[in-house]
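ok trying this again, last paste got cut off
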Amino acid sequence: MARTKTASNAILYYEAGQSYVPTVVMTDSGDHTKFTSADTTWSGYEGKEPVVRPNGMITGGVITPAASGTDNLVDVTAGTCYVSGALVSVSAATDLEITRATSTDTHIICSVVVTSGSYAVVAGTDHTAFSTTRDATGGPPLIPVDSVEVGQVRLTSYTDAAIDSDEIFMVPGTHTERADYPVWDENWADGEIDFAAANPLIHTGATARKVFVAYYTPIFSEVSSATDFVPAETTHSVTSTQIYGGTVGATSATLGQGSFTTRLQTGVTDGLIDNKNKTLWFKFYPDRYRNEYILTQGVLGIARTFPAGAAIMANCTISASSTSIDKES
């Protein structure tokens, strides 16, 4: 007869501290949507949450026809952007020269960019018509890897003339590279972010922009004398409404709290007590001699009891915003 499997060899860890990882560039997974870090778990401890900074404009950087009215020139307002994970302030620029096509072609697209902390112009290749393909004749140019695209100027004549506002384009994701677009979700359990859409391949080598992150990794300590761990999981319920001739049912889902019980030493100075009401990671191994574990993140709640003739105990809850995650290793 097979032996009944128990959790007698289980072990529970909690996030007792954090280790800082300074700003690093993330790895494009290849679909230009998912970007990963070298660490698989980011801390969510208050004040130590990850800071994600994709290269891109944040404020300002509005391109307008040159106030001087001089041919082929534009002005750009002061702005801020993220470059290599750092906030960069860019001074306003006046009379930036936009390249026009030659007499044999008519159409050209020029990108206004932030390079080395100031505005500059990168010209595309002229043609008889516009193209939407980067680096194609008549298309927008590829811009340097560490530059940020502010907007585009599209001209249809090689004859010198003042730039018109209708020739200036600044649509986020198409002509303007913004730090907050596309939006993304942060997956702290896997140390990655997932953009809502692919980042366009507008940089040298037909590559996506760089994405940077600074974060903390959790440092785990054992929860001594722990027992009765319950992961945060979803339960389902059914409600029904009686109608003529039958019944209509509906289902709903509820995320339950995780929980565990532990014996305390003093009930006051224990390390776990120091972290109550904080957002922590918990790592539970059903068998300490195997690789599988359950990862749960949530706010630690503690209810202590001080009996006269027994151990000081803490009934702990983990108020999670998402279900616990099963990990194979």
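PB: full thing came through this time. DSSP finds one helix and 25 strands in the chain.
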